[in-house]
UniProtKB/TrEMBL annotation:
Pfam families: Bac_luciferase
Gene3D superfamilies: Luciferase-like domain
Protein name: Luciferase-like domain-containing protein
Transmembrane segments: none
NCBIfam families, sorted: lucif_BA3436
Protein biosynthesis keyword on record: no
Luciferase-like domain boundaries: 6-185
Keyword tags: Flavoprotein, FMN, Monooxygenase, Oxidoreductase
Lineage of source species: Bacteria, Pseudomonadati, Pseudomonadota, Alphaproteobacteria, Hyphomicrobiales
Protein origin, superkingdom: Bacteria
């Protein structure tokens, strides 16, 4: 738990420095064989707390496991945070990949893809304007209403990986797509990523725009010229800021619209890395100005 001490102060600093979003993970159970405890805190409870510690930054899940939870509970938590934050919630969503969690919830892991798609449909119906009659394998609603509705239009649902769905389904039903970055230490990885993004965007109905996102675990070293070097079997990228700027430029050319950088494996203090990213890297890739958050009066 000590790893979380002071984290909210860092998030407040990120908010002040103009980063686009902060991401929290959803890992209900720690499986020592999997090797990663994730965020530890429940993502929805934690985002409610972070909503009170921030003013502008988007609050994102990366990713909420839709196949493990009932859509009513997901929608209630999501729309609550959306109101408490003034409309700043972004839901990264996934079907789950930790085998220990599914029997703990009394669910069949082999059915997670079907359950994921059903949960997305149910969630959309619940949070849409007006009153819906829902008849789903996950439950039925008739004569009852869901409240609150989202604060400022639909809450974006960003599908992570395939989530056991076809690329055509993702193109039709997702508000954006978060994928793994391919190898990040050479330009070949971003080139392969460009092909994946291009093929997906060609399937989007009416050629509409959907943002693409990717992420990388980063060990940002003091030496600004340190070359891009894979660690932990390619799971972590060790580099100096010049190598990171090169990578982000390659991702941008590939069609990536947002990069989420995890620094939990960095040797340097988190506050020091955030300062360097804000002062030396972010000016090359400024966050786009979105709608101003709604006034929070709770």
């Amino acid at each position: 738990m000590t790893v979380l001490q002071g984290q909210a102060d860092l998030v407040s600093d990120i908010d002040r420095r103009g980063f686009a979003a902060v991401w929290v993970r959803d890992v209900p159970l720690f499986d020592p064989n999997f090797g990663d405890a994730g965020q530890i805190f429940d993502p929805f409870s934690y985002l409610s707390y972070l909503a009170a510690r921030t003013e502008k930054v988007a609050l994102a899940t990366g990713s909420a496991i839709f196949s493990l939870r009932h859509p009513i509970d997901l929608a209630k938590a999501a729309t609550t945070i959306d109101h408490l934050s003034g409309g700043r919630l972004v839901l990264g969503i996934a079907s789950g990949d930790r085998p220990v969690e599914f029997p703990a919830y009394g669910l069949d892991m082999d059915e997670r893809g079907e359950r994921f798609a059903e949960t997305v449909a149910y969630f959309r119906q619940l949070t849409a304007p007006g009153h819906s009659v829902i008849n789903s394998r996950l439950g039925t609603i008739s004569g009852a209403h869901f409240l609150p509705k989202p604060a400022a239009g639909p809450i974006p649902l960003i599908v992570t990986g395939s989530s056991r769905q076809s690329s055509d389904w993702i193109a039709k039903h997702a508000d954006g797509w978060l994928t793994y970055p391919q190898q990040a230490h050479t330009p070949e990885g971003p080139k392969r990523l460009a092909q994946i993004i291009r093929a997906w965007r060609n399937q989007i109905p009416d050629n509409g725009f959907r943002p693409h996102m990717t992420n990388e675990w980063l060990d940002l070293v003091d030496d600004s010229s340190f070359p891009r070097t894979p660690l932990r079997g390619g799971f972590v990228l060790q580099t100096g800021r010049k190598g990171l700027i090169d990578l982000l430029s390659e991702w941008r050319d590939a069609g990536v619209n947002h990069a989420a950088l995890g620094i939990q494996f960095s040797a340097r203090p988190a506050a020091e890395i955030i300062q360097e990213l804000a002062e030396e890297v972010l000016p090359h890739f400024p966050s786009l100005e979105g709608p101003r958050p709604l006034e929070v009066v709770w």
